[in-house]
Amino acid sequence: MILFIEQLFNGLQLGVTLFLLASGLTLVFGIMGLINLSHGSLYMVGAYVTATVTNHTGNFFLGICAALVCAAILGVIIEMTIMRRLYHRDHLYQVLATFGLILFFNESVRIIWGSQPLFIDIPQSLNFTVNLFGQGGYPAYRIAIIVLGIVILLALFVLIFYSKIGMLTRAGSSNREMAQALGININRLYTGIFAFGAVLSALAGGLAGPIYAVEIGMGESVLILAFVVIVIGGIGSIKGSFIAALLIGIVDTLGRAYLPAFFKTFMSASDGAVVGGSLASIAIYLLMAVILVVKPQGLSSKL
Amino acid sequence: MTRLNRQSLIIGLTFLVLAVLPPLLSAIDQSYYVSIASKILIYALVGISLDLIIGQAGLVSFGHAAFFGMGGYVCGVLSHHSANDLLVFSVFTGTNNALISWPLAVLVCMVLGIIIGVISLRTTGVYFIMITLALAQMVYFLIISIPQYGGEDGLSLWTRNKLPGLNLQDDTQFYYICLAWVIIYLLIAHKLIYSSLGLMIKGAKLNHQRLIALGHPPFKAQLMIFVLSAMGSGLAGALMVNLTQYVSPDYLHWSLSGKFLVIVILGGIGFLFGGLYGALILLGLEEILSSYTDHWHFILGIALVIIVLTSKSGLYASLVGRKAT
Fold it and tell me: Do A296 and B119 make contact, defined as CB atoms within 8 angstroms?
């Protein structure tokens, strides 16, 4: 039972990481109509900057802050030089240009940091375990990620629905020309939203640093999961992507933990491991297929 | 010169060059480039098949590596079983005969194309892009989770497939086989897009709702063209595995799907023949850049962004003097 609860929490933690990535992706798509493959690159850059600064100063929080600042600057530069020219283009061209950016970022990281993965220690202040329901310990760091994810969800809701910026954003999303005619600087607003998504993505990368290895290509594998999340959640919907992210996180984690053991109960150990392992690695895609058959537009279609 | 003449002139010239390329290369003592030319033809085959679904149907598939890799794996696995005397699924023996393993590779890709097509054609636009990507990723993880077939290391093959009467081990003969397949596939695709089925697909691209209102839901036609496209890519995968004598999980990787899209766009969307030029530019660029620096992806990445931001049509499209659709 304790193992199950631990796995459930691991699933939540993965889900929250995915949500941080997917929320930026879905905002940028929902508002600017841009499909941004290079969103995962900012996740990677976030993790690398966090690792470098943390390992030099010994302060993880300083590392995260540096990553966020870097991502914001990078986000503004990318938006103003490239993305801005892509908003009105066909999705195919957006895919191609941002695919080019992925190649560029991966290779830049290889030139700057080399091909060896980096590692970050869990910060001292969070390096302890918490008793779950009186039995067994669970790392406090992962719990902190889960809590932070929920805080960010709430903050996003307040920001989008109850702040002036949120109002302008929604106005720009529903009718760009009209908002512009009423005197809103849409260009600056879009730059801001893009940079904001970049910051969230880098935050996810920095937080994931102490848990997974910081390596080249780490952004793309998680980006594809984030795509699955926003397809399931409904493109453009923050609420939908939160639900879908948790769903994907939990299904993936529990599948990997239990499916091989489940198949071993009625198959030989090696066959069970192979079948269970294969099924676990595709469980989320099957889930996506099923949800699409039932609801082709995803779980939620509102912002 | 009228447009049609210019186009037929370019196509004719291209095939003339392609036909005399191997003897030409061996005359200047550069036979090494024959296998690179074969690789270009193989990628061209994928480019042509992908353009069927992008250019004609207006649906951007970001998952064609799944078919390419699957075709390759079917060929490779059969060959692996025949070399090691193992039974496939404990039922039938492997084979190294191209007459069996190539059609089988195409058949498996047909089935995979139907499965992926039925799911992803429920959607359009950006959803279609993401779903094809996700399903292709599923195929990737499924295959690398089988330790018997090398997992993330892939499978090495002893020899190329056997084709009665020919020696595929010979690079020149292999090149002509690839060329033949490109021509055959081009003819089939050309025939198809000027048939009523092709009209229906173009209609669906222009106005999906209206086609349904007219009593012709385009789903079946779209599925057919998607499956034909999957089969072409699967065949290319089978050829690729024979060329390199190695089945790599990279053939299933999403970044290869990205490169296939690059080929289609470089050639010009909506021009089946453009796939050939797209493959030529991309692989040529790869070949040249990688001889100068290890970090050629850096330059390729920047080049892609610039190409997208500055141009609106592909190379072949500019050659024949038309804008891409």
Answer: no
Q: What is the mean pLDDT of residues A52-80?
A: 93
> What secondary structure letter does DSSP report for B283?
H
| Amino acid present at A20 | L
Nearest residue in chain A measured CA to CA from B325: A90
Which residue of A225, A285, A287 is the best one to mutate when testing the B interface, meaning the one whose CB has the most B CBs within 10 A? Answer: A285
In chain B, which residues have their Cβ closer than 8 Å to the Cβ of A228? 130, 134
Distance CA B321, CA A210 (A): 55
State the total domains in chain B: 1
Residue A277: its chain B contacts at CB < 8 A?
145
Say if B203 is an interface residue toward chain A (CB within 8 Å).
Answer: no
**Residue B12 lies in domain:** 3-319
CB contact under 8 A, B60 and A95: yes
Tell me: the pLDDT tens digits for B2-26?
A: 666 777 888 888 888 888 888 888 8
Beta strands B246-247 and B155-156 are antiparallel
Q: pLDDT tens-digit profile of A198-247?
A: 999 999 999 998 888 899 988 888 888 898 898 888 877 888 889 999 99
* CA distance to A38, A246, B24, B318, per residue, from A241 (Å): 19, 8, 58, 42
A6 CA to chain B: closest CA distance, Å? 25
Q: Residue A141 in contact with residue A129, Cβ under 8 Å?
A: no
Is this model's pTM higher than 0.90 or not? no
Largest CA distance in chain B: 62
Q: Which residue of A has its CA nearest to B128?
A: A231
A154 CB burial (10 A radius; 0-12, 13-18, 19+): exposed
Q: Where are the domains of chain A?
A: 8-121+133-218
Q: What is the CATH number of the domain that holds B157?
A: 1.10.3470
pLDDT for the residue B315: 66
The minimum CA-CA distance between B5 and chain A, rounded to whole Å, is: 30
Closest-CA residue of chain B to A33:
B126
